[in-house]
């Protein structure tokens, strides 16, 4: 072990890649201690990091946009906004664990579209966390890195996200989706075999300004619902504990919009577990139907969809070669995730792209993805 530590800490440069993620089903359940079904994808952020022989100067470059910034590891605080906070947030959380990090230079670039719902932010956080861990021989475990990346968003970015995105970026496995229990952090891998069908994302190329503020609002609304429900059902501590029967029986005890928020989370947790059964049974039709149910719940109960996402989902409903479609991610823009026959992709895109352009004056971007491994050093 001592020899291994010496080898790790002697590194002068390292390159790490961390993927974005998709989520088959299970939206806005992670911060309610619920279940999610994500996977890492073949869209990645890559960071090259090297020691710069200074005590505490960190220099960071975004190669794609040719933007850079520097900060002092001994004294830094969040900026008003921007990608800088994701980087500094990770460093901040790692330093809180008592590790030692000296000056470094880092350059990053990637192909995870920003604002797409594929969690480019988690890819950025996790790539930096893994690179710092390996470059400086911090000997932190994967869960330490996942939690540090999550808390970077809480404390430096100001988004009270759940743990799903960072988990998927680090723990992903090729051709496998992961059922994660966000309370116990227990997870299982499930083969994701679509046969004659494939995954296709449709990026709306819109990002409505409500996304960040409404995310935190939804979390607060869920907490408000729990505060009422636990007075009726003392055994519950989170929406994870609430049954369908209990939430329906509480209709007249909750403000109408709070009931709908809670109803989404309770029903979505059940859909995730039903989806894993569909995967085990090889029932792709059932999986697709659950995806549609998820979208309409996100649209009507949780109210985090938008006209562009709803339009794209409606375009698929009458097409028998599309098994399922739904919005993916936090909402108010980003992508829909679709499962459709491989041989009909070109036909599908020609029609839907034309209709979307006519409806909104914006071109959508199709993104074919494959399920790949999680974060790792590549040199």
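^ Assign residues to that structure.
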């Amino acid at each position: 072990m001592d020899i291994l530590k010496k080898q790790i800490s002697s590194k002068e440069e390292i390159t790490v890649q961390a993927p974005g993620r998709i989520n088959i089903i299970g939206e806005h359940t992670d911060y309610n201690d619920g279940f999610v079904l994500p996977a890492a994808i073949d869209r990645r952020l890559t960071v090259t990091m090297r020691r710069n022989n200074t005590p505490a100067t960190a220099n960071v470059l975004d190669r794609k946009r040719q933007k850079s910034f520097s900060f002092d590891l001994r004294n830094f605080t969040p900026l008003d906004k921007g990608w800088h906070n994701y980087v500094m947030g990770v460093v901040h959380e790692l330093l809180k664990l008592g590790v030692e990090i000296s000056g470094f230079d880092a350059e990053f670039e990637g192909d995870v579209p920003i604002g797409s719902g594929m969690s480019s932010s988690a890819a950025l956080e996790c790539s930096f966390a893994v690179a710092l861990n390996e470059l400086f021989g911090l000997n932190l475990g994967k869960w330490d890195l996942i939690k540090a990346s999550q808390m970077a968003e809480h404390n430096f970015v100001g988004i009270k996200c759940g743990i799903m995105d960072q988990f998927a970026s680090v723990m992903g496995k090729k051709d496998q989706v992961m059922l994660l229990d966000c309370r116990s952090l227990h997870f299982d891998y499930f083969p994701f075999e679509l046969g004659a069908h494939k995954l296709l994302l449709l990026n709306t190329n819109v990002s409505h300004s409500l996304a960040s503020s409404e995310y935190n609002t939804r979390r607060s609304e869920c907490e408000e619902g729990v505060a009422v429900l636990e007075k009726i059902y003392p055994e519950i501590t989170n929406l994870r504990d609430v049954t369908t029967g209990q939430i329906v029986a509480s209709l007249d005890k909750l403000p109408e919009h709070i009931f709908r928020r809670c109803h989404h989370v309770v029903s979505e947790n059940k859909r995730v577990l039903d989806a894993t059964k569909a995967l085990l049974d090889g029932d792709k039709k059932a999986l697709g139907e659950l995806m549609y149910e998820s979208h309409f719940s996100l649209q009507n109960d949780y109210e985090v969809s938008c006209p562009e996402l709803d339009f794209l989902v409606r375009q698929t409903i009458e097409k028998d070669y599309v098994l399922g479609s739904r919005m993916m991610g936090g909402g108010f823009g980003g992508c829909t995730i679709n499962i459709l026959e491989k041989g009909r992709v070109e036909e599908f895109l020609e029609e839907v792209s034309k209709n979307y352009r006519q409806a909104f004056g914006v071109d959508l971007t199709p993104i074919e993805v494959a399920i790949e491994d999680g974060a790792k050093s590549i040199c």
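The longest strand covers residues 38-51.
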